[in-house]
Amino acid sequence: MSEPPHIVLHALAPSHPCATVEAALRFKGLAYERVELEIGTGQHPAKMAAIYGEGRTTVPGVLIDDEPVHGSNAILERLEALAPEPSLYPAPLADRVAEAARWGDEELQDLGRRLPWGALHFRPEAMGSFGGAGALDPAGTDYAIRFVRASWKYHRISAVQLAADLAGLPAKLDHVDALVADGVLAGAAPNAADLQIGATLSVLLTVGDVRPLVEGRPAEQVARRFFDDRPGLVPAGAFPAGWVPAA
Fold it and tell me: For residues 124 and 145, is the Cβ–Cβ distance under 8 A?
């Protein structure tokens, strides 16, 4: 009998793509070591590039017996090849699940970065809730302001981009609802698309201005079924009036 692979996951605590990969590892029953990179120091991009190659500066990444695999969607596909059962791409929907997972990676995932950090720009004291605490005191809020400013720079966030993200969100949620109606999402067992899309939606539920757009529709099921323990809430009213579409 061959030895099980040695899997190392390089991650950051708040990262929803890392949550996607961890959920897939647990689903497949694969043992792994999680290496937590330091957030806020600016050092993790260089560390990731040193391990995974030039230009690959984001989390997650996994080493499978020293084979580097970078990015949540690539990791899901590699885990499927490594351990085909239980499947993340079950027949007869394998192609549609793969397409939906790619969409979640390419079209939806960045909103889980930009919208929370965007909202925290206007309510920085709420950053404490993401660590399980309440609103920050004035000194903590000063720190949060600096941290959020750095995050805007790192993720290349702008007010114009945020307004466009919010305006386009209802159409993306409609697409998720359609995937549920078609049986691609929210089946009896999680698949790659559930984990890819659900992790991002769970982050969007932490944004009070966005939560009403998600709640009460099939997309909420996808978020809460596998990722219902995410802390944090930016109170509603953070974004300027007129930026958020009507629920």
Answer: yes
Sign, Cα dihedral of 233, 239, 245, 246? positive
Q: How many CA atoms lie within 13 A of 110 on its CB side?
A: 14
- The phi-psi region of residue 42 (left if phi > 0; otherwise alpha if psi is between -120 and 50; otherwise beta) is left
Edge-to-edge strands, sheet with 33-36: 33-36, 7-11, 61-64, 67-70
- Decide if pLDDT at 169 tops 70: yes
Beta bridge partners of 207: 234
- At 3, is the pLDDT very low, low, confident or very high (cuts 50, 70, 90)? confident
Sorted by sequence, the CB contacts under 8 Å of residue 54 that are 6+ apart come out as none
| Separate counts of helices (H) and strands (E) for the chain | 10, 4
Indicate the pairing of strand 7-11 with strand 67-70.
Answer: unpaired
CA 89/CA 86 separation, integer angstroms? 9
User: What 3-state DSSP class applies to 69?
Assistant: strand
- What does the pLDDT read at residue 39? 82
Per-residue pLDDT of 79-122, as tens digits, reads: 999 999 999 999 999 999 999 999 999 999 999 999 999 999 99
